[in-house]
Amino acid sequence: MESKIIKGNSPTEIQLALDNSLRSGFKPTLAIITLSETENAEDLRTQFDQHSIKIFGITAPQKFTGHGIDEHNIVVMLLDMNPDYFRIVLKEYHDSSAYEAGLKTGKIGKETFTNPGFIISPIDFRMSGDEVIKGLTESAGKEVPIMGGVAGNPKDFSGILFNNSSKTYAGILALIIDRDKVMMNGLAVSGWKPVGTSKKITKSKGAWVYSIDDQPAVNVIKRFLGEEIITDEKQGDGLLPSDLGYPLQFERASGNAIMKPVIFWNTADQSIMVGSEVKEGESFRFSLPPDFDAIDIVVGSTQIIKEKSMPEIDALLIFSCIGRLGTFGPMISSEIEGLSETWKKPMLGFFSLGEFGKLDDGPSEFHGTTVSWVALKEK
Length: 379
What we know:
β25 (355-357) and β26 form a beta hairpin. The radius of gyration is 20 Å and the shape is globular. It has helices at 11-23, 41-50, 98-112, 129-140, 217-225, 292-308, 322-328, 332-343, and strands spanning 3-8, 30-35, 54-59, 63-65, 68-70, 74-79, 86-92, 116-123, 146-149, 161-162, 167-168, 171-178, 182-189, 194-205, 208-212, 215-216, 237-239, 248-250, 258-260, 262-266, 271-274, 283-287, 315-321, 347-352, 355-357, 365-367, 371-378. It has two domains: 3-189 and 292-378, no CATH class; 194-287, no CATH class. The longest helix is centred in the last third of the chain and has 17 residues, at 292-308. The protein is α+β, with helices and mostly antiparallel strands.
């Protein structure tokens, strides 16, 4: 399987780049499209559909390739994967739930392939990533690999998902891979180091945490992160900065922690909202500010897989939390370059609003402040 990256600031520029690729003899069957301006989606759908190229299209204002962060409005990865080896499914939430959309997507995957793998991108921040995972694994199997990232503009969580036939502002887009024909491997890695003693969630509902160690959640967070994280007490609630840099590390039996950033605060009831569902009785630790060690851990995860099971790949997809961009600043270039250098194959990534992947050999989960990467190799 061959893969190529094309880019442009308009559908016209993308058409020229696509024409050049086709004239060279390259015959792509799949286009993974990341775009900043949603109004370009319709023109892109027409262009790729004319060449019978299947579309996995998402909104992603902050994109990157193996050459670093890319300022183009549209960046596309083209692949000539055998069309029998993949399927693209777009499920809208409508009046249903994220769980039901995941359930239906997983069912299609299992009916299509005996051994499916899922690369997904939901949109609509109000919907639970945990519920998407729950639906997918219930219908497709607990051990099925699910990699990906939440699409959308981090400023207001707006955006679209689209394929050849439809688009949605609230739903889930899935690239379903036949793993009997295409190797699919990857991990969700953070690199943040824990600090302090374990703390227990003593009252919660969904993603909202009301008390920690029987103390008001906002007070506990402020005591560790500082009074200044709540910028306006009179406002009563608000969005915490995406580059806060101190995700909560929820402990797992394997020893690998799942990262969940604090997103909202509400001083009226002294609660906080974290990046995904939290259960009463769960324990977490705070995080130290990241340094180059965090980058080394992420890049090292790809090098380990290369040595153990995938010496060669055809393409690499990266879903990196938007919080990493704000926290690392210019240092994020080192992480991007390191990931690209492992296999030196075409790479496409974007900064996401939540990530999906496996921490280890356990089940896929929904994360924050992580890098979820997936390498593809046609057998």
